[in-house]
Amino acid sequence: MRYFVAVAEERSFSRAAERLHISQPPLSQQIKALEDELNAQLFRRLPRGVALTGAGAAWLKSCRAILTQVRMAAQETSQIAAGMLGTVRMGTVSSALAHLVPCILAQVGQSMPGTKVELTEMSSREQTLAVLRDELDIGLVHTPIDTADLRTRQVLREPFYAAVPSGHRLAGRKAVAVSDLASEEFVFFPRSLASGLFDKMVSLCVSAGFSPKIHHTARHQSTILQMVAMGLGVTVVPRSLQRIYKGSAVFLPFSGAPHYLELSLIWQDGTADGLVEKLVDSLEPLRDFDGLS
């Protein structure tokens, strides 16, 4: 097909041979073999050069389209092999959707424009299992996680805040101590959803001299905050939830040294095409992102 297109565009076997860097006899033989295979005359031989027949003009149009597809397929294959093109199935915890995920998508779009990210909101535990089962390529979870079979890279560290009802005795303060919550009833999520984060929140209370009295649980942060707003208890949340929360619960920083939670990427080592590793590497500058800038 490439030989035929060269002859059709040059309208000369000799000029086409020069363009293709081959001698003229093999080129003539190839075109003759092509005409025999198609059972059609593609060129009219003229005293000087050649002209396309009607069949040749139709074949030229098809050849150009096919060769364009071949070039595109080759380019796409090379990009996939180089980890520059493809689809990444990514999970994320809900608390990262308002601030961190948009930054991740922006960076991927800039540094890896041929990569499509498919997002699914899941708990940390659900993501861990999905990555291990190859149902997700990468997860954005609260760490630590309870498996050593996955690679992790921290991308965000942000402080905990207390969340209390608007009419609560602490609501008017600029900051509270963790110990100020000792007598309160708490609203938490089940430990099975994110054991690392759950244990970190409980240890925050234990280090202040008390064990939290967990009276209510909910799966999603928005539901937990709604229950706090209803006066069912207090809770501990990531600071960034202030961005997406529209209810009446009040967010209060903790006094003293800040207490942090971490969000990390998790993935299986040695993925076949290297696309996940390239995505992770492209997000490294986010490690110092504070979530509210």
TrEMBL record:
Pfam families the UniProt entry points to: HTH_1, LysR_substrate
Chain ranges of the HTH lysR-type domain: 1-53
UniProt KW keywords: DNA-binding, Transcription, Transcription regulation
InterPro entries tied to this protein: LysR_HTH_N, LysR_subst-bd, WH-like_DNA-bd_sf, WH_DNA-bd_sf
Keyword Cell membrane: no
The keyword Transcription is annotated on this UniProt entry: yes
Family named by the database record: Belongs to the LysR transcriptional regulatory family.
Name assigned to this protein: LysR family transcriptional regulator
Organism: Bordetella genomosp. 6
Organism lineage string: Bacteria, Pseudomonadati, Pseudomonadota, Betaproteobacteria, Burkholderiales
